[in-house]
Design a protein that fits this description.
Number of helices: 2
CATH architecture: Beta Barrel
Largest sheet: 8 strands, mixed
Radius of gyration: 14 Å
Strand content: over 45%
Strand order of the largest sheet: 2-6-3-5-4-7-1-8
CATH class: Mainly Beta
Structural class: mainly beta
Number of domains: 1
Amino acid sequence: MLRCMLRAKIHKATVTESNITYEGSLTIDEELLEATGTRPFEQVRVSNLNNGERFETYVIPGKRGSGVICLNGPTARKGTVGDVIIIFSYGYYTEEEMKGFSPVIIRLDSDNKIIK
């Protein structure tokens, strides 16, 4: 049996941009994607702490070191610049793979830099 488990989380990312005319997705600074092992076009779930919205989309890499978190296309309607969001990535694991498993969790400051 496979279990769906939290694989990675970007905690308290601040939305820096919103682009309703883009065809869709969530742009995330490439450094943050690498820190969590998240791949371009991977599905994510997003929870907006400011308005309670929750939605699923996929990620595209943004400029490395920019701190960009951009809501694109329809997701731009789910929040505004300055909102704080949590980005979740899930994976399916066997019971054997779950032994000793723990998700990668990064916490960000207000500039979307990883808090050490």
